[in-house]
Design goal:
Blueprint: E1 4-7, E2 13-16, H1 39-46, H2 50-68, H3 86-103, H4 107-113, E3 118-119, E4 122-123, H5 130-142, H6 151-171, H7 176-184, H8 187-192, H9 199-219, H10 222-239, H11 242-258, H12 262-267, H13 270-290, H14 294-308, H15 320-328, H16 333-356, H17 370-386, H18 400-413, H19 421-447, H20 454-478, H21 483-499, H22 515-524, H23 527-536, E5 543-546, H24 550-560, E6 565-566, H25 567-570, E7 577-582, H26 593-601, E8 606-612, E9 617-622, H27 627-630
Parallel strand pairs: 5-6, 5-7
Antiparallel strand pairs: 1-2, 3-4, 7-9, 8-9
Length: 634
Amino acid sequence: MSLQLQSTGRRGYFFGAFAHSGPGETLVVETSEQSAPDLSGAVRKRLPTWPVFCEAAVFVLFAVFFIIYGVTPILGGDGLGLVGADEPRYAQIAHEMLVRFDSAHTLKERLSACVTPYLYGHPWLEKPALYYWRAMFVFQEFGEHDWSARLPSATFAFIMAALIYLHMRRFRRGGHLDAAIITVACAGMIGFARGASTDMQMAAPLSIGLLGWYAWYETDSKFWLFDIYFFTGVATLAKGPVAPLLAILIIMAFAFLRREWSIVRRSFWWPGVLLYFAIVLPWFIAVQHQNPTFFREFFLEHNLERFATNRYQHEQPFWYYFVVLLLAVMPWTVIAMRALVDGIQTSVAEWRLRRSHPSKPKPNRPGDAFPEFLVLWALIPIIFFSFSKSKLPGYLLPSIPPITILTGDYLYRMRQRGLNRWVLLGHALLCGVMTMFALLLPWFVLHGAEMPPPHALVAALLASTGAVLLILIVVHGFGVTRLRLATTAVLIVLMFFLYGVGPFFGVPAVEASKRVIHLLDRSYSARPLAQRLASIAPANETVAVFRVRRDMEYGLAFYRNRSVVNYEETGVPEDEHLLVARVAGRGGKDLHTQEALEEYLDGRQYEPLFSWPEQGIEVYLVGAEVAEKANPQR
């Protein structure tokens, strides 16, 4: 019998092996005497067509640019060193794990070296080891650099965006390219894809797993159910039990909304459960065996206490994540919020219909439950973490992919009708405001909240007006289909402004365009200061810090590959050393560091070497403690 495409209603499409004839219809039976199949034609049908190839190439080009540009030396340059406290700290842990791995002689010793994360020789049990493993092996391939420490997040972000493109193309064709490009071209993804941190290590696998689960829901194929167990296990190794908890909450809420509790039972698949524990348990058991305090430190302190208390001083108001969400999906915020509202309205209408007529069968179409699933996936992490006493922006990252998918699908559905003029105008104005802020960013970095000079304001205003007009004219002339092109064009120009032009795979950079990223590097990273210190002191010279931010302390330690001494924690070293002290706060506020240093040094000689005004820092050379004071006579 002939091979025929069959519809399975809600479960999507699949190729069936038989074509069934209804009553009264002629049954056509193909005999073995039919001509041999055209194998070359079958092969050609399996190969992607030229439009499909071009579409995929467009996605790859956009994804590589927005995720990688300005991260690696060959594309945009590694202009910005590690920033914040987490990036240098996690990179240093991966470096120390690699040192222990390379010094091991047997397979058992190498496996043991990959179990316990260490920071400056002490166990660091805040997070599981996934990021450290991935960064360690990247270091082996590309060397120990700050840019290579960011590749684990960049690669996961690309894989997630690629699977969003493929999943949408399979289950929600039409908006797949918009959804994938919006995912890689929003502020949250651009930022966290460049972070040497654990946030993308959890969000990307969890998102891939949830997409796989929905594919199973549509097709009823166990192949897709494999994804939720495998990738949730990977996400658990990134941040711990919060990954499976979020997955369970989203699936349970979806079952409740759809009034299909059977999917919870059918989702419980013994091979998948065994796979999940096979991925997760070996490391958790091994690290507990090596560190008896692991259960208390990781589960009780860094999971339960972090959620229930403000022990780690990250308290924020309840509405914090709603503001973070608006910033994370820029410049698509206006359209994304309209798409989210549209998805919520659709979900509520579907839920009311099922509730009002529970016995009446509903017409189901392939993918008709996808908006409801995406809405729950987007809202549940926001609501869950809003109740946490400890709030950080990265916790929201799992909510961004479903919102960008909703946005891409919404734009596709609006192609015929056109966007509401107020939504389009709001989107264009937001892109203009973002352009103006980005162009004025160097001024605010140098001068704080001081008003920019008139010529700078006029230039930024003209550029922002140009961005607004570009979007409005393109959409008016070519329709909603070209909205992504106009918006990403604005983003690309801003990326060139911030990161500079070049290098491009061997083509040298335009040095004059690198002033902004060099300013940001000097203002927010410890790398330029560490390079300056290395030029005046040997690598084994003791460096101490006083009143500096944690990002500077951890950053200096990573770039010098040795811990620094903190006056306020361990006291003043007896030997001669360099001292990095913060003397000015925001707006140049005097921190009275000089008076405090006099007390700490207690008469010891010291002299200023140079200033680092971008971060309010003064560097001193502190002489060794005199013998009489170090060993007083009795």
